[in-house]
Amino acid sequence: MKVQNNKAWFLVLPVFLLVAFSAIVPMMTVVNYSLQDIFDQSSRYFVGADWYRQVLADQRLHDSLLRQFIYSACVLLIEIPLGIGIALCMPTKGKMASLVLIVLAIPLLIPWNVVGTIWQIFGRADIGLMGYTLNKLGISYNYAANTGDAWATVLIMDVWHWTSLVALLCYSGLRAIPDVYYQAARIDRASAWAVFRHIQLPKLKSVLLIAVMLRFMDSFMIYTEPFVLTGGGPGNATTFLSQTLTQMAIGQFDLGPAAAFSLVYFLIILLVSWVFYTAMTHNDKNR
């Protein structure tokens, strides 16, 4: 009987403890702030769940949460099918395949604040290529003043930035499908749609769940790009949960409500991530 050697875990243990410490200490600080009314370092009063009740009744949270879910749903509905389509069209061999992979990876390497700045300039009607062209064509476009234009620009910016991630994940999943499946499909003279529906899509299920989970988590926590592009405007049209939390914590310095808000935010993301994880593990058991 082969005995497993678990000594390698001792090499990982210091990193695990460091990561756990760096995560637990800030979390406990936030929990502490969410239960107290803090005036200064020497004046703190225990308020229990008062901040949670206040935050859950706050209309700003409801409005930001609704905008956040709509935004994340739009991102997933656009980027997942688009990423699958790009992956299916990508070459599989030769120098062209390497070139396409490099080009797709470029948007992922650009920092978030730079992405917002690029699209802020790109969409301007006076000097931006997209804004100037649209207005010359007779299309009234102004992301700084029109809610629809602001939403469309933020969505297009996110699609440009992150669809490559979905495409690369799907591409790796497609390359992992054994060739015998395609050989059987050719023998049966299956159409391209039949191959996609009965071979490629079922084999991509686990990869797609990972892509959906990653894109949901990232889009649900988005802050930098819309903040740089629109500042949350016009009005509060593109003010998402992260920006509302920042305004509460830094702009108003309401540390107690902001801490309660951040924990509610964290629990929402944790709950949705657990749903995705459960779906992934259930899918693996049924394979």
UniProtKB/TrEMBL annotation:
One of its GO terms (biological process) is transmembrane transport. Gene3D superfamilies: MetI-like. The chain crosses the membrane at residues 69-90, 97-122, 159-177, 206-224, 258-277. InterPro entries: MetI-like (IPR000515), MetI-like_sf (IPR035906), Sugar_ABC_transporter (IPR052730). It is a multi-pass membrane protein. Belongs to the binding-protein-dependent transport system permease family. This is ABC transporter permease. It comes from Pseudomonas turukhanskensis.
